[in-house]
């Protein structure tokens, strides 16, 4: 396998300190990052490092439970536990991971483990989710201003207090990878193949020392999944900084002004890569089912949040159907590391 090509690009770091008095400055910084890179790092967001570490501890405790216990809260209607079930069109294979996806309100009925199995997990998880939602809403105010909408435009569309909410928080556990991964004709263990998120905005927490996240900035890359392009490593922070990326929804909602960016958690194949277990927490801002989505310039026809989700899933499965033939052509014309 040919080595991945890398470029050390700077990722914008944006502080939310003194938000009320700096909102215009922060808006300019966020819009610039969304236009030029599609990824940025948020600091001074108000979530204590101890709270983030506590959520990672809960994640470890949840995933340490026997599969038979986790299987009592199976993935249903975009919530619950799954294992080795997410197949990426970019690899044609399942990510070697397990995840537990949580939503707000009644969406989780029957999908929380009983308190005697994991005491206090539910209130702790919901408390963390509400804190992250608070950070998201600050970012939404800025993006609304940057696009000429009123301050509450995006927060109303992503109101997690409504039964129509689709926003989710995903705990992710990547399994340890064999030290000879993909070499000598052996099987390739994929972590998370190259993809762009379909939703509004993703807030990602990484655990220090567990590297692997890489980005391919800009939506206009050489191929549909960044094959042949240069990638940039995004190392975990020791301070609790949040890595954020634009999703396809915000790209559409901004009339393509903001860029949804390809990213992946690279399957380790080189000696310097990280092969151990990897934990992360992803918070996906997804619009309410009945939210009306159309950019200020009306570049695309209006759709509801439910319609956008349905269209995104249809496109995903369309990619899946074509992935085998497409990968064969890509490998022939631009051979790169297949373990993405």
Highlighted features:
340 residues; alpha+beta; Jelly Rolls; four-stranded antiparallel beta sheet; disordered C terminus
CATH superfamily (homologous) name? B-lactam Antibiotic, Isopenicillin N Synthase, Chain
Number of helices: 7
As for the CATH topology, it is: Jelly Rolls
Can you tell me the residue ranges where pLDDT is under 50 for at least 5 consecutive residues?
Answer: 323-340
Backbone structural class: alpha+beta
Distance between the termini: 12 Å
User: Tell me about the biggest sheet?
Assistant: 8 strands, mixed
- Percent strand equals 15-25%
Average pLDDT level: 86
Order of helices and strands: EHEHHEEEEHHEEEEEEHEEEEH
Number of strands: 16
| CATH class bucket | Mainly Beta
Q: Share of helix among residues?
A: 25-40%
Number of domains: 1
Instruction: Give, in spatial order, the strands making up the sheet with the most strands.
Output: 1-2-12-9-14-7-6-3
Keywords: Iron, Metal-binding, Oxidoreductase
GO biological process, one term: small molecule biosynthetic process
Protein name: Fe2OG dioxygenase domain-containing protein
Organism: Exophiala spinifera
């Amino acid at each position: 396998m040919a080595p991945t090509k890398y470029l050390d690009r700077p990722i914008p770091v944006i502080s939310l300190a003194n938000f009320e008095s700096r909102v215009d400055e922060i808006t300019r910084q966020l819009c610039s990052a969304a236009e030029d890179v599609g990824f940025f790092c948020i600091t001074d967001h108000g979530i204590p490092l101890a709270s983030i570490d506590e959520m990672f501890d809960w994640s470890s405790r949840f995933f340490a439970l026997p599969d038979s216990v986790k299987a009592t809260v199976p993935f249903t209607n975009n919530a619950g536990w799954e294992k080795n079930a997410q197949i990426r069109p970019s690899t044609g294979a399942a990510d070697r991971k397990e995840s537990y996806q949580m939503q707000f309100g009644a969406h989780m009925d029957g999908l929380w483990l009983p308190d005697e199995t994991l005491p206090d997990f539910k209130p702790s998880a919901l408390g963390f989710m509400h804190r992250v939602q608070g950070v998201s809403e600050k970012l939404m105010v800025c993006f609304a201003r940057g696009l000429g909408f009123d301050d509450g435009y995006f927060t109303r569309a992503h109101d997690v207090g409504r039964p129509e909410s689709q926003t989710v928080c995903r705990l992710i556990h990547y399994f340890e990878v064999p030290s000879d991964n993909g070499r000598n004709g052996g099987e390739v263990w994929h972590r998370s193949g190259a993809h762009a998120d379909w939703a509004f905005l993703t807030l990602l927490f990484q655990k220090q020392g567990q590297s692997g996240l890489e980005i391919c900035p800009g939506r206009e890359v050489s191929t549909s999944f960044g094959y042949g392009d240069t990638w940039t490593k995004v190392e975990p922070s020791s301070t609790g900084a949040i890595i954020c990326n634009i999703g396809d929804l915000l790209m559409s909602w901004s009339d393509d002004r903001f860029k949804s960016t390809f990213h992946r958690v690279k399957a380790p194949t080189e000696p310097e890569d990280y092969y151990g277990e990897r934990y992360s927490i992803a918070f996906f801002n997804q619009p309410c089912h009945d939210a009306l989505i159309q950019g200020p310039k009306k570049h695309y026809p209006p759709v509801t949040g439910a319609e956008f989700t349905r269209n995104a899933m249809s496109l995903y499965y369309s990619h899946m159907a074509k992935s085998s033939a497409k990968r064969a052509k890509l490998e022939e014309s631009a051979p790169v590391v297949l373990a993405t």
